[in-house]
Amino acid sequence: MTDANSPKTVLIAEDEPDLRDLLRCAVDINGYNVVEASDGEEAYDIVKSGVVDLALVDQRMQPKSGFDFALDLRIDGIDLPIILITGDTSNDLLVKASGYKNIVRVIKKPFDLSEVSETVKRTLDRKSA
Prior knowledge:
Layout: E1 9-13, H1 17-28, E2 33-37, H2 40-49, E3 54-58, H3 66-75, E4 82-86, H4 91-98, E5 103-108, H5 113-128
Parallel strand pairs: 1-2, 1-3, 3-4, 4-5
């Protein structure tokens, strides 16, 4: 976690480069630092080796999905809030996500950039309080 005076760092894990760029735009607008990963495994390595305050993670990535990433963090006792991005609109996914205490929100694709930006901001503000 970063100190109170420095910008927060958001990890974006998305396997599609164009969507990763869009998500970066939504996060950059609030002045946060951004680090990027193309899958859950790379995202996990970034969290283990650096300072991350929030993860914005796509559900469907290979070789490790967003749920795999969340589980790895939970197993290692890393308390990092995760916003899960998904194209899956099933209730089963929402039920599964509710079983992970570190998944604080699910945003469905296609997403609105202002929704992503506001959700990131609210989540980080809540974490700082």
